Amino acid sequence: MRDAPRVRERDEDDLAACVGVLDTVHRADGYPTIWPDDPAAWLGPGADGRAWVAERAGRIVGHVALVRPAADDVAPTLLRHGPTAPLAVSRLFVDPAARGLRVGALLLARAADAAHAEGARTVLDVVTTDRAAIALYERLGWTFLGTGRQRWAPGTSVAVRCYAAPAASRSLPRETP
Ligand SMILES: CC(C)(COP(=O)(O)OP(=O)(O)OC[C@H]1O[C@@H](n2cnc3c(N)ncnc32)[C@H](O)[C@@H]1OP(=O)(O)O)[C@@H](O)C(=O)NCCC(=O)NCCS
């Protein structure tokens, strides 16, 4: 289908465009809550993580990363899991001009598929006021694990809702062939 969104692995050359989209999202939605000093570094995903971008009509319109959870992340503590520790979705955002086109759903599915291939469940947390993101996770059948408080900066904590990906990755959405 013409202009259908496509997801591919992010590479180093994509970072500037990703930061541009993130800036637009921050102004529109207040995500991330605290604008990072070094947004390219904040996008990570760090040494043992992976990241993907969504493109539409030749432009980057969305981003997601899959990372090992930080030691003080709440979501992994709420999931009973087997020998493989869960991985965490982070840095998920979609350009406001490309919303409602299943870009977010495709990015989430790609991250969850990658974790599933390693035998890991995927977890995430979302600020309780991020209604679009909560609607997305619940629409896609992610399991609500509980609520908690997450610390992102010294001396501040925010209320979050935590979710785990559906157990079967085949229930996740697919790209249009
Ligand atoms: C959350 C976000 C990634 C959704 O991206 P998107 O590409 O518009 O989402 P999709 O088109 O894939 O939506 C899939 C489903 O989620 C639900 N959904 C998504 N946005 C919604 C909204 N604003 N209100 C209600 N439901 C919504 C819908 O059910 C939708 O399916 P449907 O249209 O067939 O009913 C996007 O709004 C965003 O970037 N928000 C700001 C950043 C953010 O909050 N990131 C998450 C941090 S945890």
Task: Supply the key terms.
single chain; 177 residues; alpha+beta; Aminopeptidase; seven-stranded mixed beta sheet; 4 helices; globular; binds coenzyme A
Summarize the structure.
The chain has helices at 15-29, 39-42, 103-117, 131-139; strands spanning 6-9, 50-56, 59-67, 87-94, 122-127, 143-153, 156-164. With 177 residues, it is an alpha+beta fold. It has one domain (6-171): Gcn5-related N-acetyltransferase (GNAT) (Aminopeptidase, 3-Layer(aba) Sandwich).
Structure write-up:
With 177 residues, the chain is α+β, with helices and mostly antiparallel strands. The chain has a single domain, classed as Aminopeptidase. It has 4 helices and 7 strands; from the N terminus they run βααβββαβαββ. The protein has a 7-stranded mixed sheet with strand order 1-2-3-4-5-7-6, sandwiched between helices. β2 and β3 form a beta hairpin. It starts with 5 loop residues before the first strand and ends in a 13-residue tail after the last strand. The chain binds coenzyme A. Coenzyme A binds next to α1, β4, α3 and α4. The site of coenzyme A has 20 residues, from α1, β4, α3 and α4.
